[in-house]
Amino acid sequence: GAVVSQHPSWVICKSGTSVKIECRSLDFQATTMFWYRQFPKQSLMLMATSNEGSKATYEQGVEKDKFLINHASLTLSTLTVTSAHPEDSSFYICSATRLGSPYNEQFFGPGTRLTVL
Amino acid sequence: AQSVTQPDIHITVSEGASLELRCNYSYGATPYLFWYVQSPGQGLQLLLKYFSGDTLVQGIKGFEAEFKRSQSSFNLRKPSVHWSDAAEYFCAVALPSNDYKLSFGAGTTVTVRA
């Protein structure tokens, strides 16, 4: 159990367009979902934390108007990269914590590769 | 400053040889400790975790890690590596005081030669 999926697995878009990435917990209810970005050959950097039905909490330096996060249900969170530019090209990974899980253990999705032309 | 350090950026090891990846942390309290593996273009897979208790932790794929409080370390080991172990390895910590948010080390790339 504790499977997290992401869709799409990769996306290419033109500069100036918006892209939506979905993160789903397939077999459990996720109390909290996290969004990370990872540049090539680098570590994961936490972007924001989202809880179902409330506004996301963004980490310092992350533009909340650029990276819109919606957590509409206990199994779905979406990240929308608005007016994407080439510098937004990155690997975006989500994770989720399972309701009732001790220590808020995070289960990771497979990631979404975003390329902005 | 609070941090997670993986001193080795890249390690090359022969297939069948042993592997040890280092991880040190700098926090006021003992954090929860994790090791993740990431294959190219993939998400993260949890290898093992330490919350409390026995300081030698067994994980998946034949990996183990030992928590040493005196050295603030949580090194990952595998007695005999397989070519499929070539990947990126991340050490991560979480603190209850920080809502268990994960902080990752910079990662260690493991290359396995035949």
Short note summarizing the structure:
The complex is a heterodimer of chains A (117) and B (114). Chain A is mostly beta strands and 117 residues long.
Can you put this structure into words, describing what you see?
The N and C termini of chain A lie far apart (37 Å). Chain A contains no helices and eleven strands. Chain A is mainly β. In chain A, strands 2, 4, 5, 6, 9, 10 and 11 form a seven-stranded mixed sheet that branches. Chain B is mainly beta. In chain B, 0% of the residues lie in helices and 52% in strands. Chain B is globular, with a radius of gyration of 14 Å. Classes of the chains: A mainly beta (117), B mainly beta (114). Chain A binds chain B through residues 4, 6, 34, 41-44, 46, 49, 91, 93, 95, 97, 102-106, 108-111, 113, and chain B through 32, 36, 41-46, 49, 51, 90, 94, 96, 99-107, 109.
Structural descriptors:
heterodimer, A: 117 residues, mainly beta, four-stranded antiparallel sheet, 55% strand, B: 114 residues, 12 strands
Map the helices and strands:
The complex is a heterodimer of chains A (117) and B (114).
Chain A: E1 4-7, E2 10-13, E3 19-25, E4 30-38, E5 44-51, E6 57-58, E7 67-73, E8 76-81, E9 90-98, E10 106-108, E11 112-116
Parallel strand pairs in A: 2-11
Antiparallel strand pairs in A: 1-3, 3-8, 4-5, 4-9, 5-6, 7-8, 9-10, 9-11
Chain B: E1 3-5, E2 10-14, E3 19-21, E4 24-26, E5 32-38, E6 44-50, E7 56-58, E8 64-68, E9 73-78, E10 87-94, E11 102-104, E12 108-113
